[in-house]
Sequence to fold (352 residues):
Amino acid sequence: MELLECKNIYKNFDDKEVLKDVNLKIQKGKIIGLLGKNGTGKSTLIKLINDLLTPTSGEILINGKKPGVESKDIIAYLPERTYLDKEMKVKDAILYFEEFYTNFDKNKAVKLLKDLDLDINTKISKMSKGMQEKLQLILVMSRNAQLYILDEPLGGVDPATRDYILDTILTNFCEGASVIIFTHLIADIERILDEVIFIDKGEIVLTSSADELRNKENASIDEIFRRYFKC
Amino acid sequence: MDFLFDNERPIYIQLVEKLRIEIVSGKLRPGERILSVRELALNLKVNPNTMQKALVELENEGLVYTERTNGKFVTQNDNLIENLKKKMAEEKVNKYLEDMLDLGIDNKEALKYLKEIGGKF
Fold:
């Protein structure tokens, strides 16, 4: 059984077709890059998988079941923009995750934050943007989930933070779990990807193993992506 | 173990090449136990699946073997390591000679350079 399967997904907003016949199969134990420019349906797809929207037609299955209460335990989702209340302190955010998610590993989160020398009494609003991104990622990766969905985890962070984020993803996803990274910033993440999926104008246009694609095209995924989208 | 990857070539091939060098150079000794796939992957900051693929390739080449319960080890077949070393050295020499030819320097002269400059190392 696939961890995640999207079957013939269509999504319209009024008469605008945002997703067209999207078919996806995500297996266990993989890191997948879902790559597309802004405004190509990435965010809509994420919302569908997270049960924040329903498809116009087609079916999404998570471990064989439709999105719902159960899938919220299976999926750990890192949104592009923070949803943490900035007036909270770090320790409040930890408490919030602990109350909200049964599979949240508090000890893991505390350890990772300690490695960063982050005082849990700090107010989130007083932290740098990079530090806020790290906190959010730590909270999400400290959930013992089966599928991690990360929306632009590298958006607008400096190179050192980027390395930290990649390492944290690699070291913390549970064995047998999968990670889908939705992004248009490819150069920095491509070395950790098993598979790449290109999405363009609401359609999946390419699915391949990352190494096979490099071999075939004699180029980096980033360059293949640029060539494809001529950007 | 910091390692810079070339994103234009398959990562697993680069991992195979790196581990071959470690074996041939003796950094990884014959019969030595290799770190687990996950540890190796985290050290080099690559995906564990990619590391696994590289180790399978090394096993196919006979450079690495698995003991069912104990993990993976470097081969104790010295001939195999020696032959690989020779093959890799030949490739480097051919590359050197080709590069020199590109500069208009023939093999004989290239050898002279090698003796002259190599002697200073």
Chain A touches chain B through 25 residues (CB under 8 Å).
